[in-house]
Amino acid sequence: MRTFNFVCAAVALLQPAWAGTVGNFSAYFANYTFTVTCSNPGGAPVVPGSCFAVHIPEIATGPTSLFANSQLTFDETLSVGPAPPYPFIGTFVLTDLTNPANSVFGTVDGQGVPTGPGPVGFPDFQVTALLTTTGGTGALAGAQGLTKMDGTAIYTYFNQDATLATGDGVFNFTAVPEPGTFFLLSAAAFVVAARAALAKRRTVMRT
Length: 207
Known about the structure:
Shape: elongated
Radius of gyration: 24 Å
Number of domains: 1
Oligomer: single chain
């Protein structure tokens, strides 16, 4: 009877009532665009030594696992230190272009590492980050989740005094499994083991 009660408790835990709105996502953007200006000190050339922090808005459009027609925007600040990797933090918003009332938003924490000379004399970068979804709007109100990002950043233009740069690159996003997923698997394994133990006990008692 005690084992049976354990099984019932585990089955109750498997019910989806605890689950929140999924806010992580997977996607591949073959092209996104960005601009760069110096924010510390403001208006300085965006080169190491002259600038200590740069402001980098980014935008990409395309399909994601959440929306078939998405727009992803970032607003980030990257710290230009004496040596890589260069950390950046910021925010993101992923919007459903078909129904703009639906979106998810959150924070970004990542880093950039130079990978070699670029087309305009500034290095190309490999970028990685963790996106933390902290909320949503419309059908995704209250969304939460984690998403890993990796990609490239290629500078394609500097204006004459190097106070403005633009570029493009590739973004790849991978949804991080929710903790509940691992919990469900563990709970399911527990249920199977408990049922097997109960069946074995009954067999022994009958003999």
